[in-house]
Amino acid sequence: MVRLTARLTLAAVLAYAALVKVGDLTEAGRTVALYRIVPDDQAQLIGGVLPFVELAIALLLAAGLATRVAAVGTAVLLVVYVAAIASVWARGMSIDCGCFGGGGTLSDGAERGYAIDIARDLVLLGAAALLIRHPRTPYALDSWVLDPKEREA
C-alpha cells in the first residue's frame, strides 16, 4: 500500500505541476530564466518542454506503466530541482521557485522558504527511490504487460 501511495502521490504532484505550467509556457520559460543557470533562450526551451515531460511521467506513474523508468525520470527531475533551488539559495537570490506555476522575483524584503521547497522535493525523491527499488504496485498496468517470470521478481 505504501508503494501504491508513493506512485499515485508522485503522479498527482507531477500532473498538477505540469498542468498549471502548460497554460502559459512563456511564463514557465521566464521562471526558468530567473534561476540564471542557463542562457535565456535555453531557459525558454526548458520552460516550454518541462511541463510536457512532467505530464508524461505523471501519466506513466498514474497508470503504473514502466513504473521503474518513470520513477527514475522523477528522481532525475527532483535532483535537478533540488540543485537549482539550492543554487538560488546559495547565491542569495529571492525568487519563487515556480514549481507549481507562477514563479518570479519576490518583492524587496520578502523571503522565500527554500528549506521547505527542498524538504518537499527530498521527500518526493524518497518516494521515487522506493519505486525504483520496488516498482511493482497494486492496480498497475505493469502487472499485465510483464513476462510472468518478471512479475514474481
UniProtKB/TrEMBL annotation:
Q: How does it sit in the membrane?
A: Multi-pass membrane protein
Signal peptide (residue range)? none
Query: Can you tell me where the transmembrane regions are?
Result: 43-62, 69-90
Assign the protein's first listed, main location to one coarse class: membrane
| Cellular component terms per the entry's GO annotation | membrane
The record ties this protein, via InterPro entries, to:
Methylamine_util_MauE
Q: Origin, by domain of life?
A: Bacteria
Q: Cite the entry's keywords alphabetically.
A: Membrane, Transmembrane, Transmembrane helix
Subcellular compartments: Membrane
Pinpoint the Methylamine utilisation protein MauE domain residues. 4-132
Q: Name one GO biological process term.
A: methylamine metabolic process
**What is the name listed in the Swiss-Prot or TrEMBL entry for this protein?**
Methylamine utilisation protein MauE domain-containing protein
Which taxonomic lineage does the organism of this UniProt entry have? Bacteria, Bacillati, Actinomycetota, Actinomycetes, Kitasatosporales
